[in-house]
Amino acid sequence: IFERGLSAVLSNPNDSVSLWCCFLEYLRRRVEDWKQESKEREDLMKAFGDATEYLDTNYGKNADTQALIIRYKAYIEATKLDNVTGAKKIWDSVMSSHTREAQFWLEYIRLLRQVNDSNGCRKVFTRAIQTSNDNPELLCESYLKFEKEEGSLSDLDTAVTKCSARLKRAWEQKTREYEKAESARLAEEEANAKKEQHKAQKRAQKKAEIKSKMEKTKRKHEKDDERDKESGEPEPKRPFVSKEELSTKSKEEDVKETSTEKIHDRSKDPQTVFVSNLLFTVDEEQLKSTFSPLGEIEEIRLVKNLQGASRGYAYVQFKNESSVSAALAIDRQELRGRPMYVSRCVDKTRNPTTFKFPTTLDKCTVFVTNLPFEIKSVDIEDVFKVHGKVKEVRLVTNRSGKSKGYAYIEYEDEVG
């Protein structure tokens, strides 16, 4: 079974080492008398050489990283064959690769104590506390305990002196390592604090910029409103504008240009309509193409701010007053996908705004709600015209022209 396992050449060298250790333990149990030469003892000692050769051939020189096989051989040499010198040579070769590891030194010392080699233990302890650095406290504790149990007072004093010096060096080394780690930690904390301070400064700067921009915009709007108030122009609600529309506006907010708008002549109000809820990108030419079929136009004045951008409303002045009625008829007609609000041009300071629809009971009008948002006026008219002649369908929309889900249907007479 062992030969079949070795013929597989396991991919992990540790598995092969474990397999060889099991085989060596099996061969050790076959030896009955260690004092006499026998085939079983010869097979065991030969197997140690075969194991080393097999591992070196298939995995390289350092396949047995923990030296399990040769440490086992040293144990056999010292305890079974009384060859302490041979065992020491084996352990010296092991310690050449594990000189800084306390556990290897302690195992070496336990083997020497097992064969009653006290002088050998002292020599190994001296080497161990000088070279091992992973656990000098454990080595010193074991050394002092050994001298208390095995040595004389002189030996104990010597051990105390050696251990004190070694522990002092260990403490100094740990202190240096701690100071180095603490210095690195403080440097990292200082760097993080600087980063946080820099971020806080950037946030404060950004906040100040936003506040300054808001105050600047507020002052600009106040100036625009004051100017409109002085000119007597009606103040419309600011129209909704999408991000795409805003992108077409000028970003140079700091430009201070003098407005070239004309002062509105109130004597022309009867032949003028006020148009609002316009896209900021609508210009005079588009307004002219919309209103010119309704009558001859004398002037179109698109109200702009100090930067020359449209404010979303305009005045259309016709030559004849009769054209105003035709213009009012296209109230809420879409211009470039957005309903425009058309109303008479009146002086709000002298003529308060009145609601354009009747506020008393209207027996010719029905109110319909819970409508689909995508429905059109023509669709509503098709449904309700079977009950009578429909005079007008008023589908209520928001400023962007989207239906609010309800409408008014006005019939020619009360019968409908």
UniProtKB/TrEMBL annotation:
GO terms for cellular component: nucleus. PROSITE patterns: RRM. GO terms for molecular function: RNA binding. Residues 181-199, 206-215, 222-268 have a biased composition (Basic and acidic residues). Keywords: Nucleus, Repeat, RNA-binding. Residues 181-268 are annotated as: Disordered. One of its GO terms (biological process) is RNA processing. It is found in: Nucleus. This is Squamous cell carcinoma antigen recognized by T-cells 3, partial. It comes from Paramuricea clavata (Red gorgonian). The lineage of its organism: Eukaryota, Metazoa, Cnidaria, Anthozoa, Octocorallia.
